[in-house]
Amino acid sequence: MRFAEIENGRVRYVLPAELAEEYQILTPCAVEIPLDSSLAEGDVYDQAAVDAVSLAAFRAKRDRLFAETEWVRQRHSDHVDMAVDDEVNWDAWLDYWQGLRDMPGQEGFDAGSPVWPEKPE
Predict the structure, then answer these.
(1) Contact indicator for 111, 54 with CB cutoff of 8 Å
(2) Do the domain assignments include residue 120?
(3) Domain limits at 54?
C-alpha cells in the first residue's frame, strides 16, 4: 500500500510502498483510501474522487466500529434480563453510538480526517 498527502487536489507527498510497511504516517483520525499506482508528487488529483473515496472509507470504518461494539449491546441485554443496573455505563455507550451516527452532519465534517468520538471503557 502507498500513502499520499493530497491537499486542494494536488499531491504533496507520496510515500513509496516499500517504506509504507515500515512507517506509520497516518494520524489517528485519518482514513485510508486506495490510490492510483502511477500517482506522483505534484500531480493534480480529482478532489471530488478523493472526497467520494474518503466518504466510503469513513463509512466502512464507522460500520466496523459499530460491529466491534455489538458485544456491549448484548451484555446490556443480559444485564437487563438479570436486573443488573448498568445505566451509567450504558448511557456512555449510547452517547458514543449517537456520536458516530451524527458525525457526517457535523459542521466542518471532513471524511478524510474525521474526529472520532471517544469510545467508553
Answers:
(1) yes
(2) no
(3) 3-105
**Total domains present in the chain:** 1
Q: Cα separation of 69 and 94, whole Å? A: 11
pLDDT digits (tens, 9 = 90+) for 37-65: 666 666 666 777 777 778 888 898 999 99
Kind of pairing between the strands at 10-15 and 3-7 = antiparallel
CB–CB of 32/26 below 8 Å?
yes
Is 8 within a domain? yes
On whether the pTM is more than 0.85, the answer is no
At CA 85, angle to CA 82 and CA 87, rounded to 5?
130
Does 71 fall in a domain?
Answer: yes
Q: At CA 99, angle to CA 68 and CA 53, rounded to 5?
A: 70
Task: Put residue 8 in one of left, alpha, beta given phi > 0 → left and psi -120 to 50 → alpha.
Answer: left
C-alpha to C-alpha distance for 96 and 68, rounded to whole angstroms: 13
